[in-house]
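Practice set, problem 2.
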Amino acid sequence: MSVDRLLATLVHRRHGVTHDAPACWFGVDRSTSSRAVGEVRLLLAERGCTVSPDVRPRTLAEVVEHLGAGGKTGIIDGTEIRARRPAAGRRGRGSFISGKNKQNAVKSMVVTDGEGHVLWCSPTMPASCAGIIRARQLGLVRLLADGPAVEVLTDAGYQGLGAQTGGRVVTPPHREFKKDAPDWYEEMHERQRRAYSSRRIRVEHGIVHLKNWRALARHLGRREHMSGIVQAVAGLLSHQQATDLIPACQR
């Protein structure tokens, strides 16, 4: 991978510019820039996320194994990326409409550790699919039920996975009183909710760092490329985060 091709890809993904910008910068044709960015994107997506110089998980199974080996907590959340809607008459056109934000988007499941360092991003899917369904499709239930004892924090949308994984998936505290709750219970529930939110908020920090890349703020290109783009950016961000953890004298 040449330095120029890598730089062109970084500029294109980080700032969300068209292929004309890196083509003009390096004095090449637009088609050459587009081809280089596409090839480097695939290489970066296959590289995986960097946890340490010797650990680079590429699949969800490897992430679960890494968390279990280190006795670490994982945090899962979904993020949506605005994308073009399929043309009128196309099959599955309505599946890209997000029920949450009422916009055309694709969704990816993000996994971080307890400190918010990105460990893995799933391939994208239409935004209408619920996060719990996507987690089951990716085999999260089987990996946690049959794998190491790993604590995974999620939001309320994943309720039900805890029973299927032997309590490994943890969701926000369940409210026992629907109405007319005693004052002592309201105070206790609020303390539990805040304590849980303060732990799970780290995944939101990881997603914010991902969204700092303009390519993940809004995608105007082909939706078929989104999986590679998300995983490539996750790999680049995780490498930066892992590098920041290494003392300067040891680099």
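Problem 2, part (b): a different protein.
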Amino acid sequence: MSQRNIVPRLAASAALGGLLYGYDTAVINGATAVIKEHFHTGDAVLGLAVGSALITGCISALLSGRIADKVGRVPMMKIAAVCFLVCGIGCAFAPNIEILVAFRVFGGFAAGVASVVAPMYITEISPTRQRGVLGSLQQLGIVLGIFVSLLVNALLVHVSGGAGTMMGPMMTWQWMFLCMCVPALIYGVLAFTIPESPRYLVAQGRMDEAAGVLAKIDDAEIDVNGQLAAIRASLSADRKPSFRDLIGSNGRLKPVVLAAIGFMILNQFTGINVIFYYSNSLWSAVGFSEKDSFTITAITSLINIAATVIGMTIIDRVGRKPMLLAGSVGMVVAQGGLTVLFGTAPMVGGSPVLGPVSGPLALVCANLFVVAFGVTWGTTSWVMLSEMFPNTMRGAGMAVGTATQWLSNFVVTVSFPVLLGINVGLVYGLFAFFAFVSFFFALKCMHETKGVALEDMRA
């Protein structure tokens, strides 16, 4: 394979971890209602079933960066592939809610590993001028995984007639989980075909191997020896990276770490994952049929993919920070519209019911939010998180930032069913508030990383 296209192939292989991450976290969307009925659970237990993978993902993400610094990026991808495979099989055949939650937790471990290791690996093998577009393959993988899961769910429901209908030897919702085994197998096979990150190899003192990888992935005009020297100088070879690198001389977290934490909290608190975890239940609750709700969710996911592709085409030209600011404005407008529409809708049986005008308007606002987030915050989040840290801090820094993202996702996901039962307008009002805060956070706390070499990043 020519040198020109080997890096995109390697990045795409790693980004399959993102696809599985997206599939695993969103596949339960099509099964929430039937799981609640089938296992006779309440809203709180349902929220736990949906969010159980997220808290494990938080813990897994926190540990994965340091483990990847010890054993390598590629071995961690292989471990994640096996865990995704086991999760798909276990959830499909779970006899009760406790076993289902257990395997969701197991899948959360795999997703936590993939969410740290894949963007880290992609960033470390990418040339500076392509780091934005290649780094955003992680987000593209996630939104593709979400779309694939929702598409599979919709197709299965269309064929069988409902998520709780028997389809051969199993119910439809069980097939939804079992289908995850296919991309898990592909991911595992591809993980055996890609080389280790050169920056990890340098950190381990394996200079000849690192030189060999750099010779394959860098442009011909790049001085491999000079690149090796720059990487080695940036790694403080006198000791291994550790979580201590995140703390400054004053005993507090360094500014770049605080920025990453705030960045990933706001990334979730604007409400993006509610669209894909609970949209079927939400649209059904406000008057749409089950099949229409599946179709709406699948279309929204497709829009999310298109938005991500648009973001990928402009991120290395426009820069990261301008995209964040523009995205915050769009999210405020969209979530503000949903706040008004749901907050003023008439209540029937304790739930708001959208009319012939407000219903389509709500769909427009929801998809406008997806576009605003997908083009900007969605595309830039994994890119910036993986490139904003110096080489000595990347593993630990990404672990903390990604764990924060998982924890924030868990808080939103578990609390949403309860808040939904109180007041839908209030929920979207909170999302609009955090979107408003995100503008000023990006303005004051996020620094542009476009065109900056990884070896030149500062804490």
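Answer key, part (b): The CA atoms of residues 3 and 216 lie 6 Å apart. The chain has a mean pLDDT of 83.
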